[in-house]
From TrEMBL:
Keywords: Hydrolase, Protease, Thiol protease
InterPro entries in the record: NLP_P60_dom, Papain-like_cys_pep_sf, Peptidase_C40, SH3-like_bac-type
NlpC/P60 domain boundaries: 180-307
Signal peptide extent: none
Domain SH3b: 36-99, 101-164
GO biological process, one term: proteolysis
PANTHER family: MUREIN DD-ENDOPEPTIDASE MEPH-RELATED
Protein's recorded name: Glycoside hydrolase
Gene Ontology MF terms in the entry: cysteine-type peptidase activity
Classification via PROSITE patterns: NLPC_P60, SH3B
Length: 308
């Protein structure tokens, strides 16, 4: 790879010829390792330390069954984030880990749980409306899920609503005061990564590409997004530019002739601004940009609302 612009990469072949390739068609040599997962503290009055060392300063003491987010690990230690955004290190002997699955709510009646992501695949069982499932991943319009009886299968995206907060799976996302409080936290969380370097094929927390940034931010609020900007533009519901609100995803055409192809994504944060992982030569980091001025004014393509 010789250069990149948003989701497009200038590559040189072995015969010396060069050209642009969309990132969906490129696999990085070093496979991305997603270490983000949830953990449950198993020890009583466990010390959270400033660094991965038994002699390091204690920043907080937490109790048994406290849920934490694990963002890194080193020599038998977990780097964790608590619910109050405090960071620190705890020894892995005192943490029980579990996959960081999101929660989905079935939105239709008698929805098919299928063996494979296809309308022709075998139906394993029919799920009732408002059934809650664990969401493992997303592939071409289908969610990979586990139901309450530990059956694994696939449900089409049209019949799943992602729950905003995994801590209360009985409460679906709604346009309530709690929704806006959650979105405010989403915005502040995203701003905490301002200045983080741009790097193709990465999804944080030490570096991001554009869709890696949005997928990382939403994942930490219980939402599994598709990996590429093009596929993220199929999630949620379409929203007009004039109706944008905090947390909406905004999509752009940033390569060559402006013809409506989606090559870049960011998250709207209000006041005509959006936050994104920019690959521009003057940035190459997470920044806040103007939506209605400068470079991005005429490159806006569409927007999607994830939290309804």
């Amino acid at each position: 790879m010789k250069d990149n612009e948003d989701d497009w990469y200038l590559v040189e072949l072995s015969n010396g010829s060069t050209g642009w390739v969309y990132n969906d068609l490129i696999i990085p040599v070093e496979e991305k390792k997603d270490l983000i997962k949830k953990g449950l503290i198993t020890g009583e009055n466990l010390n959270v330390r400033k660094s991965p060392d038994m002699n390091a300063e204690v920043v907080k003491t937490i109790g048994k069954d406290t849920q934490v987010t694990i963002v890194d690990e080193m020599d038998g230690w977990f780097h964790i984030i608590l619910q109050d955004d405090l960071k620190g290190w705890v020894h892995s002997d005192y943490v029980s880990t579990k996959p960081n699955y999101s929660t989905g709510r079935v939105t239709g009646s008698n929805v098919n749980l299928r063996a494979n992501p296809s309308m022709d695949a075998k139906v394993l069982i029919k799920l009732n409306q408002d059934t809650y499932v664990a969401v493992k991943g997303f592939q071409e319009g289908w969610y990979s899920v586990i139901d309450g009886s530990d059956r694994e299968g696939w449900i089409h995206q049209d019949f799943i609503a992602i729950v905003l907060d995994n801590s209360d799976a009985s409460t679906p996302v709604s346009r309530s005061a709690s929704r806006f409080a959650g979105l405010a936290k989403l915005g502040e969380y995203a701003k905490g990564f301002l200045g983080t370097p741009y790097k193709y094929g990465t999804s944080g927390p030490k570096s991001f590409d554009c869709s890696g940034f949005t997928s990382y931010i939403f994942k930490n609020f219980g939402v599994v997004l598709p990996r590429s900007s093009k596929d993220q533009a199929t999630a949620g519901e379409k929203v007009l530019k004039k109706d944008l609100s905090l947390g909406d995803l905004v999509f752009f055409d940033t390569v060559g002739k402006i013809d409506g192809k989606i090559t870049h994504v960011g998250m709207y944060i209000g006041d005509g601004k959006f936050i994104h992982a920019s690959s521009g030569s003057s940035a190459k980091k997470v920044v806040i940009s103007e939506l209605n001025e400068g470079y991005y004014k005429d490159r806006f393509v569409t927007a999607r609302r994830i939290f309804n």
